[in-house]
Amino acid sequence: MASTDPKHSRRRLLVGGVALAAAGAGGALGWQAWRSRPAQKPRIVLGDGVDTPKDMAWVPGGVFLMGSDHKLAYPNERPTHDVRVAGFWMDVAHVTNDQFARFVQETGYVTTAEQKPDWESIRVQLPPGTPRPPADVLVPGAMVFVGTDRPVRLDDYSRWWRYVPGADWRHPHGPDSSIEGKGRHPVVQISYPDALAYAKWAGKRLPTEAEWEFAARGGLEQATYGWGDELLVDGARQANYWDVSERRFPVVSPRAGGAVGTLEAGTFPPNGYGLLDMTGNAWQWVADWYRADYFAQQAKLKRHPIDNPLGPGESYDPSEPGVPLNAPKRVIRGGSFLCNEDYCLSYRPSARRGSDPYSPMSHLGFRLVRT
């Protein structure tokens, strides 16, 4: 599956003692028969902060076709299968820089990117027998999209990703970058443990993969995008993704100082449940382990709909030769500002991928739910 992301994020963090550039038949009726049929008429219910949770939207739950058999769908999204989720409250937007800053101020929490990398968490992502790098190479930092200054072949993501010492949530593009004036942008450079720590402090939890997809669809059954079947609505974009009609991926604009990244929550209209940026802007951690074949396994179960699935018991990804098939990965959803028609079409509700839980990246954040 093509992606804008370094599949081996921390796996390829260290080679030869040098920090490298990169981190590493369908459902019941098929997508055509279900295309954009409303699962139920959506209704926006927002929490008031008194009787209901502030800055959260009610997602009523129900039965839906999870996954996709659309021509744009990757194999790990297939086949569609009936799933039922119970109702829940979900954050209207990604957890923002301002919100995460408040958490850090109150708890003193130190994120994964701000700590010296743990060799054991890196080792399990590497081919067996990979030697441990020198200690002075294991420095705090994170994966950063740096782009290129000219068009390049899209077969080697290390051309546009780098492990940058000093990159973290306060400095998402490296030590010279800042989140000043971006309080309402999604916080990024967040690892899976970071998201869990924030969730515990906030009294919430990460959504399951099924909850996330149900919410992202906004009441539309099997629509290609979270807003319908057409990418543009009245000629206007509905999400923050890389528009290749304006600029080839991964070329960054010198005129803009090479800047490319997240946008403030609320830049685009909400979906049918009142949720912002469910696709595009920044990838989002969900609770489940990632298996590339999980949807195929679910579709074979005799009893449908499947009630509130919690995901597989372990990871499985055969797409990375030389890497253990069960190297730990958690599911991320929603795509990001880097996704585009030429290399990544993950700004779709069914798109999914796995990511190293200990690898923060400059396009990866999260949002939470409460039941």
TrEMBL record:
GO MF annotation terms: formylglycine-generating oxidase activity; protein serine/threonine kinase activity
Keyword tags: Kinase, Transferase
PROSITE patterns from the UniProt entry: TAT (PS51318)
Assigned EC number: 2.7.11.1
PANTHER family reported for this sequence: FORMYLGLYCINE-GENERATING ENZYME (PTHR23150:SF19), SULFATASE MODIFYING FACTOR 1, 2 (PTHR23150)
Protein name stated in the entry: Serine/threonine-protein kinase pkn1
Organism: Pigmentiphaga humi
Top-level EC class: transferase
Lineage: Bacteria, Pseudomonadati, Pseudomonadota, Betaproteobacteria, Burkholderiales
Domain named Sulfatase-modifying factor enzyme-like: residues: 54-370
Classification via InterPro entries: CTDL_fold (IPR016187), Sulfatase_Mod_Factor_Kinase (IPR051043), SUMF_dom (IPR005532), SUMF_sf (IPR042095), TAT_signal (IPR006311)
